[in-house]
Input
Amino acid sequence: MTAPAVRPYDELMDELAKAGAESLYLCYQCGMCSATCPWSEVRDVSVRKMLRLTQLGLGGLEGDFLWLCTTCRACVARCPRGVDIANVIRTTREFATAVGAEPGPLKTVRGHLATVQNPWGGKPEERSRWAEGLGVRPFEAGMDLLLFVGCTAAYDPRIRTVARALVRILDAAGVRFGILGNDEACCGDPALRIGDSALFRSLAERNGAMFRERGVERVVTISPHSLTVLKDEYPKLGASVEVEHYTQLLARLADEDRLRLRKDGEVRVTYHDPCYLGRYNGVYEEPRKVLESIPGVRLEEMERTRADSLCCGGGGGRIFLETPPGERFSDLRIAQAERAGAQVLCSACPYCILNLEDSSKTVATSPLPVRDVAEYVAERLA
Output
């Protein structure tokens, strides 16, 4: 991959600041980011070097260096100077994508987003095929909420089961909801994290217009990535709705005794905190409350939880890039789950489920089922 062209220092810093990465000025090269980065668990990587090269004009960012970041924000949480490193990297990627310097698979992703409004290349007319036979209705004003399904739950065969499980739960709890169906477009998170803000804006504006046209006021998402952009980015474009993750809704339904769940033996379950649900949105307790509401479930915590959770490796566009064996964070997470004595590993993010399940199949020393929280609850519906 060609490195981004070296830019005059003043010009570059001015453009970075305008794009929201002005905190780059604050970096004084302490190295805390490099020590915190999950890549340090599997290979030699220096986030500090990347920041310094960016300060000097982007020269030297060869190979995949700029595209390793999963935007997990572990470094942001520990930076003593308050540098928003994930945002600096996203902004720097804008310069790379502007000259076509992103990795080939991400070019394909951008092409799919621009033409069929999803990163997986699925046909728009098949977006709602996941819901066949469930009787899911199009959203209408007056319903309790809009279920924003997201691209991975709509098109990926494995994650479609999560969407179907959530529908069963909401129906059982008497929640009146609808979907946008084939009119839903990608939330725009992949475009934003890859570094194509114009493409993100076009996708977000399309969804925002649909929200207004349908009278949507309240949205529940399956993906924490959708939650983040709908909550933090869409209001900047005039599309402000009340939005939450489905685990937050299920936690309230559990409090209201609207989840009727049966016991299926005593099971030790551990929970993996997705970066975009936890560090980005502070949602830690609700998924645990939902799991603990299931009779017979005993929650066993892994050694890294909540704000210290180890990234699965799927954010920041990495879900679309190949990570070689021996460098997959999800392999390390499976080992941590086994050390916790878990019989089931749960999470609440499509990317996490895909990565953790792949790793469970290849590195677990004994069978370790991976379930989305919605799937695990739906399996226990009375």
